[in-house]
Structure formats: C-alpha cells, structure tokens
Amino acid sequence: MSDSLQRELIQRTGVLLEAICAGDWQTYEAICDPGLTAFEPEARGQLVEGMEFHRFYFELGGHLGKHVNTMVAPHVRMLGPDVAVVSYVRLVQRTLGDGTPRTERYDETRVWERQQGEWQHVHFHRSNNE
Q1: Which parts of 40-100 are beta strand (E)?
Q2: Which of 62, 78, 85, 100 has its CA 20 to 30 A from that of 118?
Q3: CATH architecture for residues 3-128
C-alpha cells in the first residue's frame, strides 16, 4: 500500500470525525454510504443500518463546548483494491457545560469502500472505554 493512499484514508477518517464533533450532517452524509452499518454504544449491542439512527444525534448539534479529536496509532489495512479498514484509538478532549475538561476514549474501526473513485464510509465499530 502506498504512503499516499494511507494518508488519504487517515485524512478522510479525520474529516469524518470532525463532522461528527461539529454536528455537520451535510459533510457526514456526503462521506457515508446510505446503507452505512454500525455497532456503537448508543445502539446497545444492536447492528444499526442506514443513516436515520445517526441523524438523531446530529440534530442534537454535536459536542457542546470546545473539543479536540486525536487519532492515536491509526492503522490502515487494505482488503482489496477498493476496500480498506482504518483502526485507531480516538481521544476526544472537550469541556463540559461548567467548563470542566474531560477526555473520552473510543476504540474505533472504520471500513471504507471506493465507490466511483471516491472513498465512502460503509461500516464502523466503536467501543467506549471510559
């Protein structure tokens, strides 16, 4: 795998994470396949299919207060010419409503598929490790 492809996938994942924290539905929707599937803490162990489950959280406006995403040790693995997995630990530093700083940790795996020449987010698994 070329370094430029690895950088592109990590950068695309970073754009996705910023859209999530900013509550930027337009960017998130553009990056994600309409049939996105996910396992995440909010789904209580159930496989979520499609975008509506995620839209609910975006309509809440994203994280409140200042926040910073840090991807720790991202690892890219190609599963073929048009499918890639990006795994990493995400640290989210933010302030609570009273200004208290907080860091949350998530183990994340994002699956990307190249569709018509552009990488689309098709599946993810996120574990909360507070």
Answers
A1: 48-49, 67-80, 83-95
A2: 62
A3: Roll (3.10)
